[in-house]
Design brief:
The protein is globular. Mean pLDDT is 77; it is low at 1-57. A 5-stranded parallel sheet has the order 7-6-3-8-9, sandwiched between helices. It has a two-stranded antiparallel sheet with strand order 1-2. The protein contains 8 helices and 9 strands. The chain has 2 domains: 2-53, no CATH class; 69-225, Rossmann fold (3-Layer(aba) Sandwich). The chain has helices spanning 19-30, 36-53, 98-108, 121-131, 147-150, 157-169, 187-195, 213-225; strands at residues 2-5, 11-14, 69-73, 82-84, 93-95, 112-115, 138-139, 177-181, 200-203. The chain is an alpha/beta fold. A hairpin with an 8-residue loop joins strand 4 (82-84) and strand 5.
């Protein structure tokens, strides 16, 4: 409920949803009552209405909204989990180091994680259980390579672009930019990044060391630029 008192009448007690109609009504009345006092009141009502109804996105110090990316994350060569025996299970278990868990959680504060990996879904679910993220990561369909893909500098590129297109076409994407972290990113991926219809940031870790604090810091800087 908003309590609005005009310079010419009694206090108006209006539900929030009725404010827009009230503002339109005052606009019409303002054509007949154009005193400076009335105009100041109209401006105040309009500002209070918009402040109450706008959703403010996180912003930088200069007022620009931060980007909201999907973060495409490879596993092998990036997170480098330890493969452990699974006491009688059919598949081994993947164990992330404390450092890698902390870095992925930090990444998740910058955008929505999406797995880009050939690991089976049940094994990826084991990684998610270790990460305990607030938002469940997306599954960028388990990669299925075609013969032509293996000859490409970036074998996953076709699958990634196909998935991004499908998510956009079905209006399932809520991001405004793309971050892709993979230890295999060739010239074709870099060319695609310059042509994609959203800003793209690529990070290519050394497969021996994988994801580091430096990679995450650069991604945070990219997101903050807005």
């Amino acid at each position: 409920m908003q309590h609005l008192k005009g310079p010419w009448d009694e206090t108006h007690d209006l539900p929030d949803d009725d404010l827009s109609g009230f503002i339109r009504m005052r606009g019409r009345q303002g054509q007949q009552r154009a005193s400076p006092e009335c105009r100041r009141y109209d401006i105040e009502v309009s500002q209070r209405f918009h402040c109450a109804h706008c959703v403010k996105l996180p912003s930088n110090q200069d007022g620009r909204a931060r980007m909201k990316p999907v973060i495409l994350l490879d596993i092998d060569g990036v997170l480098n989990p330890t493969v452990c025996p699974n006491g009688g299970g059919d598949r081994p278990l993947l164990r992330l180091s404390h450092e890698k868990r902390a870095l992925v959680r930090r990444l998740a504060r910058s955008g929505r994680i999406g797995w880009v990996s050939t690991w089976p879904a049940d094994m990826v679910a084991g990684l998610e259980a270790q990460l305990e993220l607030d938002v469940e990561p997306l599954r960028v369909v388990t990669m299925v390579f075609r013969p032509a893909d293996t000859d490409s500098p970036t074998p996953k590129l076709t699958s990634v672009t196909r998935w991004l297109y499908r998510m956009s076409a079905t209006e399932e994407s809520d991001w405004d930019s793309v971050v892709w972290i993979d230890d295999v990113l060739g010239t074709d991926a870099r060319k695609w990044a310059t042509e994609h219809d959203q800003p793209v940031h690529l990070e290519q870790p050394d497969p021996d060391s994988g994801l580091t604090e430096g990679h995450v810091a650069r991604i945070e800087a990219f997101v903050a630029r807005g």
